[in-house]
Amino acid sequence: MHYPLTPRACKRTARRIRIAWYITFVMLPLPLYAQDEKPGIAFSMIDVNAPMPAGWKNLPVAHGKAMTQYTLVRDGGTTVLQADASRSASALMHEGNIDLAKTPVVAWRWKAQEPIEGADNRVGSKEDAPARLVFAFEGDKSKLSFFDRAKMDLAKHLSGQDLPYATLMYIWSTTAVPGSVIANPHTNRVQMIIVSGQPGDAGQWQTMRRNIAQDYEKVFHEPPGRITGYGLLSDTDNTGTTTRAWYGDIRFLPGP
């Protein structure tokens, strides 16, 4: 039997969905890029005075949130993206059409100025990170639990848009050691893999490489569906602090 949610429960659930799901940035009707058009972004090939390439949007993660500022700057003679978050949360995203059978690996560079004081990705009220890569996936929602489907139905009713079937993030965090997997505090449909944040990482450029298909199967226990959106996110809205990070080129590559 399906029990209706009370108005208070609906409001509480809706708030948790807005916080937990970084969804607004994958909802807009941006044009899909074919796999053979080399998905990803080469900041190093862009002039600092040029606009962001077509299809990339700075989008809020929830209504009423302040926007993280993303700007092109020079660092070591190379153009990179600088992210400045001040009590803010928005993501620079592109709608995806990534064929993981052809290019299951993502490679990128990033640098975080310092850890976020008070951040803890295991706790909803402290769930911030100076740097994240975000991937949204489609999948068969009929396989999900009744509770997960109910949350998705409610979010669709509120926003008019479908939620991603699953979201995978690679994050810069001091919460746990690299390789650790943390479920979003409000929903296990968002899984975060820590890849940076050890002592000595702050202020240093790091070159990262991950097999998205393998990581997805590890954390969601099934093969991945199509990627419907990807991008990056720096946020401090929960801790009410400020942070700065830089992102280099993001490339999709053949395995392993």
Give the SSE layout.
Elements: H1 7-20, E1 40-41, E2 57-60, E3 69-75, E4 78-86, E5 89-98, E6 105-112, E7 129-137, H2 146-159, E8 166-172, E9 181-184, E10 187-196, E11 206-211, H3 212-220, E12 227-235, E13 242-253
Helix pairs in contact: 1-2
Molecular structure report:
It is a single chain. The strands form 2 sheets. This protein has a 7-stranded mixed beta sheet with strand order 2-5-12-7-8-10-9. Strands 1, 3, 4, 6, 11 and 13 form a 6-stranded antiparallel beta sheet that branches. The chain has helices at residues 7-20, 146-159, 212-220, and strands at 40-41, 57-60, 69-75, 78-86, 89-98, 105-112, 129-137, 166-172, 181-184, 187-196, 206-211, 227-235, 242-253. It has a single domain, classed as Sandwich (Jelly Rolls), CATH 2.60.120. The radius of gyration is 18 Å and the shape is globular. Helix 1 packs across helix 2. Helices cover 14% and strands 38% of the residues. The N and C termini lie far apart (46 Å). The model is unreliable at 1-7 and 13-36 (pLDDT under 50). By secondary structure, the protein is mainly β.
Range of strand content: 35-45%
User: How would the global form be characterised?
Assistant: globular
Please work out how many helical segments DSSP would assign: 3
User: Quick one: CATH class?
Assistant: Mainly Beta
Share of residues in helices: 10-25%
- Global structural class: mainly beta
**CATH level-3 fold name:** Jelly Rolls
Poorly predicted parts: 1-7, 13-36
> How many separate domains make up the residues?
1
- Average residue-wise pLDDT: 86
Compute the number of strand runs: 13
Radius of gyration: 18 Å
Please state how the strands of the largest beta sheet are arranged side by side: 2-5-12-7-8-10-9
Supply the CATH architecture.
Answer: Sandwich
Largest sheet: 7 strands, mixed
Distance between the termini: 46 Å
- H/E series: HEEEEEEEHEEEEHEE
